[in-house]
Amino acid sequence: LPLDDYRKALIRTEEMLQIGGELLLTEQEELANEKLMALKNAEITQAMKKNQFPPSMHFFRAKKLIEESKVFCVLKKMPKGAALHLHDFGILSVDWLVRNVTYRPHCHLCFTPSGNLKFRFADPAPPTPKPEGCSEWILLEKYRKQLQNVTEFDNSLLRNFTLVLEDPEIAYSDQAVIWARFENIFIAVSGLVHYAPVFREYFARGLEEFYEDNVQYLELRATLYPVYELNGQTHDQEWSLKTYQEVAQKFAKDHPDFTGVRIIYSNNRKNDVDRVAESVQIAMKLRVKFPESMAGFDLVGQEDKGHSLWDLKEALLLPATQGFDLPYFFHAGETNWQGTSIDENVLDALVLNTTRIGHGFALGRHPMARNVSWNRDIPIEVCPISNQVLQLVSDLRNHPAASLMSSGHPMVVSSDDPSIFGAKGLSYDFYEAFMGIGGMKADLRTLKQLALNSIKYSSLSVDKKKTTKEVWQKKWDKFVDDLAKLL
Ligand SMILES: O=c1[nH]cnc2c1ncn2[C@@H]1O[C@H](CO)[C@@H](O)[C@H]1O
Q1: How far away, in angstroms, is 301 Cα from ligand 1 center?
Q2: How far is the CA of 224 from the centre of ligand 1 (A)?
Q3: What residue owns the CA closest to ligand 1's atom 15?
Q4: 27 lies in a domain?
């Protein structure tokens, strides 16, 4: 074979292997692809000249540039299918929490010894008991009245609800520091979002934000912590799940092109095997009672600080020993520490029959996990911005999913906790995946495959997948038409 032909054949084969590489585009899609790739090439050429490429910059600095990008503009309009990796209280921009929720009557605030915030609605006030070591409860309505500068105070609240700041590399010296801040944000918003009226509205508004970003269906990791009423009465997990179901069903009724939401009940991986076993039992009960909404079970929290899946196997094997089908959606391999028992979570997840792998950041270092995931068609859920902000990788061109994308490995793209990272919906993560991780050759096929994957790898029934895909296809055709017409 002449060298030239050989080389061309290699390039062509690689193009076929990459994610979406085997998709055949319609004429209209080809046209749209040309427009898209012209925008992409122009932006990358410009980025090379200026040496300023958003995916290789920290998202907090890249965000503004991304918002100026024409490719990003296209991605926002693109029907992206489903977002399959999200956490309960990271889905809605935090402005509403500060400007609306903290202004409601009976909202109290206290400071923990380490200076973190806790909120609680209560009437008659004050809420009891006072959290250990915390300051007295302050009624916000009263507190704001005596403040000189309320805007300044509200801005400080906003800052407490996201990780965003100017110099993340300096402020967050290592993963332990940023994870502590990250968990504190969940604790701070917890008292607000677990107040029953807010709980419903937060979720509905979260759905709206994703819907506006052209996402049709969500799967939400939820801890189902007790939701409380003004008088202190609390509700159990069943109540929370039922409420999620009601809100999602109403939203789907009001938006017929929205499929809905399914919940992945999640426990913290720091908990010991007995507590995890309890939550597995609850998950089984919920699954019987709410087959429509309850997708399965996961373990969340900082992987490096928690138990390995294998440590918890006694709890996690309970359903199987009882012949019960409890689908697992394990976070696994969200670590940089190769060779630890935590790093082996990617293997454990597969051994324990996971349906998908959350993050799977360590997959590239485990050839067997990679094989099994490929052979059993078990996708990884890639969350680029999360991985960068939580310091697993700085330049997203070096994200391990780059190699997996180039070989067409089963994957979906998701956004984890967009509101906490200062992002919104799914488009920012699609931008990072398309421009940074996917490289120059990722094109409309890549995007189409990622959207198709999000439906294919969802936990929806065969029927629901079919109808969701039909709705998606209509949106896609319209999107392609508009893109093809772009000047
Ligand atoms: O990327 C992640 N990896 C692991 N755990 C996470 C991530 N994002 C959020 N949470 C966890 O989810 C809980 C709320 O559902 C939070 O406590 C947080 O620890």
Answers
A1: 5
A2: 13
A3: 87
A4: no
Q: Whose CA is nearest to atom 11 of ligand 1?
A: 301
Question: Which residue has the least CA distance to atom 5 on ligand 1?
Answer: 301
Mutational test site, ligand 1, from 84, 85, 86, 87, max ligand atoms within 8 Å of CB: 87
Pick out the chain residues at pLDDT < 70. Answer: 125
Q: Which numbered atom of ligand 1 lies nearest the CA of 302? A: 4
Residues with catalytic function: 334, 359
Shared-domain flag, residues 307 and 397: yes
Atom of ligand 1 at shortest distance to CA of 266?
A: 15
User: What is the distance in A from the centroid of ligand 1 to the CA of 317?
Assistant: 23
Give the per-residue pLDDT at 313: 98
Are 153 and 117 part of one and the same domain?
yes
> Who lines ligand 1 at CB under 6 A?
87-88, 183, 186, 221, 223, 266, 300-301, 331, 334, 386, 416-417
439, part of any domain: yes
In the chain, the largest separation of any two C-alpha atoms, in whole Å, equals: 85
**Ligand 1 centroid, distance to 458 Cα (angstroms):** 20
Residue 126 domain boundaries: 106-160
Please write the tens of the pLDDT for every residue from 279-306.
Answer: 999 999 999 999 999 999 999 999 999 9
- 277 shares its domain with 420: yes
Burial class (CB in 10 A: 0-12, 13-18, 19+), 430: buried
224, 279, 300, 303: residue to mutate for ligand 1 pocket, most atoms within 8 A of CB? 300
pLDDT, one tens digit per residue, over 36-74 is 999 999 999 999 999 999 999 999 999 999 999 999 999
CA atoms of 446 and 438, how far apart (whole Å)? 8
Residue 353 confidence (pLDDT) = 98
129 found inside a domain: yes
What pLDDT, on a 0 to 100 scale, did the predictor assign at position 127? 75
Q: Whose CA is nearest to atom 10 of ligand 1?
A: 301
Give 262's strand partners. 219
Query: Which CATH number is 462's domain given?
Result: 3.20.20.140
pTM to 2 decimals? 0.97
Task: Report the side by side order of strands in the sheet with 357-359.
Answer: 331-332, 357-359, 380-382, 411-413
**219 shares its domain with 364:** yes
Residue 138 lies in a domain: yes
84 with 114, same domain? Answer: no
Return left, alpha or beta for 339; rule: phi > 0 is left, psi -120 to 50 is alpha, else beta: left
Separation of CA 391 and ligand 1 centre (Å)? 15
